[in-house]
Amino acid sequence: MNKEKRTEIFSRLRDANPNPTTELNYSTPFELLIAVILSAQATDVGVNKATDKLFPVANTPEAILALGVDGLKEYIKTIGLFNSKAENVIKTCRILIEKHGSEVPARREDLEALPGVGRKTANVVLNTAFRQPAMAVDTHIFRVSNRTGIAPGKNVLEVEKRLLRLVPKEFLMDAHHWLILHGRYTCTARKPKCGACIIEDLCEFKQKRDYQ
Ligand code: SF4
């Protein structure tokens, strides 16, 4: 795919949604970090249901630590893998208090050292909370990048590196939100809605289908 096409794709995605953001509910970097940890293999809707009750009661490392693992589980028990997530969140809160003055660090190495935080979670926090041009490649971004030809790659790291290199600078900050939303609602895994897709004429996918 050439640069002109990529620029046109992101121009259209931006025109359709000028201020994209995560669908997770949060109001501070700490809330975002906890929501993203909880969202592994879970839906944003499911996480929001839990955090809508948790955050009014506890939205600081100290307050969540005070709940303890069992207290926290009561709020997040509807989310998959809640046992291990509760353990990780409590350990993360303790580290934030002891090493980072109760703040969420804005450095990748510090984020990835937190229990339950991998490269993808760190990328979401760096991009969404700290507005750094990081690219959190999830299943939607991986699929859309490969199908369209925007940034094909065999694995998520390859796609992440290509996107960072190939997405035109002016779109880099918000590209990951546009790609996630496009994959979640239009370029869906099994039934892409190619007939209703605003980048259909630019997309290089060879098996376009319309499952509208
Ligand atoms: S045309 Fe189809 S395959 Fe291409 S991006 Fe749109 S929905 Fe996805």
TrEMBL record:
CDD domains, A to Z: ENDO3c
One MF annotation (Gene Ontology) recorded for this entry: DNA binding
InterPro entries named among the record's database cross-references: DNA_glycosylase (IPR011257), Endonuclease3_FeS-loop_motif (IPR003651), Endouclease-III_FeS-bd_BS (IPR004035), HhH-GPD_domain (IPR003265), HhH_base_excis_C (IPR023170), HhH_motif (IPR000445), Nth (IPR005759)
Cofactor: how bound: Binds 1 [4Fe-4S] cluster.
Catalytic activity, EC: 4.2.99.18
Residue sites binding [4Fe-4S] cluster per the record: C187, C194, C197, C203
Keyword Lyase: yes
HAMAP family named in the record: Nth
Name of the molecule in the record: Endonuclease III
Source organism: Marinobacter nauticus
Lineage: Bacteria, Pseudomonadati, Pseudomonadota, Gammaproteobacteria, Pseudomonadales
